[in-house]
Amino acid sequence: MSFSLAIVGALMLQCVSSQNEPSIATSEQITLPVEGNVLMLQCNLTAANGVHEESYWMKNGEEIPETRSPNKNTEYRLNKPRADDAGLYMCVFTFEMGLPGNATIEVKSAPEIVSHKRSENKNEGQRAVLYCKSVGYPYPVWTWWKFKNGIFREIDNSTERHFVMSKDNYTELHIINLDITLDPGEFHCNATNMISSRDEKSVLRVRSHLAPLWPLLGVLAEIIILVIIIVVYEKRKKPEDLQDDDDPAGPVKTNSTNNHKDKNLRQRNTN
Length: 271
Ligand SMILES: *[C@@H]1O[C@H](CO)[C@@H](O)[C@H](O)[C@H]1NC(C)=O
Ligand SMILES: *[C@@H]1O[C@H](CO)[C@@H](O)[C@H](O)[C@H]1NC(C)=O
Ligand SMILES: *[C@@H]1O[C@H](CO)[C@@H](O)[C@H](O)[C@H]1NC(C)=O
Ligand SMILES: *[C@@H]1O[C@H](CO)[C@@H](O)[C@H](O)[C@H]1NC(C)=O
Ligand SMILES: *[C@@H]1O[C@H](CO)[C@@H](O)[C@H](O)[C@H]1NC(C)=O
Fold this sequence. Notes:
It holds the Pfam family Ig_3. The protein contains 3 helices and 17 strands.
């Protein structure tokens, strides 16, 4: 017993609170990036009251598929680990009788902003929504900043038009009732955890609420110009039309009958 305790102590024992619970030795917690291409997470079941059944791995509370094995010493291999591999890993050992036992290994990394709203174009009076999404662990604390005249000013809920909503790896900034003079500009979301911090930029443009009418006004203007052209043209044309109507229809008819005669002649010639 004292022998196994000594080994377990040397191997960074995950504390065991009661004698009924199994003891599990784990590899140390780690901060990315690591040297080399592979990160091995290890759990060794060093003592248990019951008969060991199997083990598996979890990440952030979800079972990692295809990690179940009957081994008492279990490994989880991360190839070329990146920020999105960071998280709270847990190995779980199940027993024929009694509750499963588990141990956790933290894999930390700086936050990395993996997607964000690059630009938002809205009309005054509307609502703008900017967002940023991160990977990395622990989850960051999010802040929003407006960059104006060379100065970053933090944005919070205090203005009654700005709302910051953040959860774990995601944050949103809502700006309601957009103002064409106050609101356009450069916004930054900033993700900060114990390792480091990152930020990304979004550009907000605000148009006059007349702006969406401009294409319509353009079409209306075109229609009006067309109508004017037609009216003017028709007015100029009118005297001729009247003359035509007054003229006897004779010459037109003779023309067409002449055409018929020509055709008949041509047909006869070919025959
Ligand atoms: C687990 O056991 C293996 C040998 O079976 C050993 O190489 C490894 O260092 C142990 N890991 C820990 C975290 O105890
Ligand atoms: C891990 O162990 C703790 C305490 O022993 C227990 O409360 C928890 O439910 C276990 N979690 C899992 C996923 O087995
Ligand atoms: C963000 O965290 C949630 C759990 O809080 C997780 O389901 C989701 O996959 C995470 N997204 C990214 C991009 O890491
Ligand atoms: C800001 O207001 C929104 C909406 O009322 C709320 O969900 C959010 O938690 C608030 N954020 C802070 C930092 O108080
Ligand atoms: C993010 O905000 C923190 C806290 O204000 C600050 O220390 C850090 O420099 C900022 N990081 C970036 C990338 O803007």
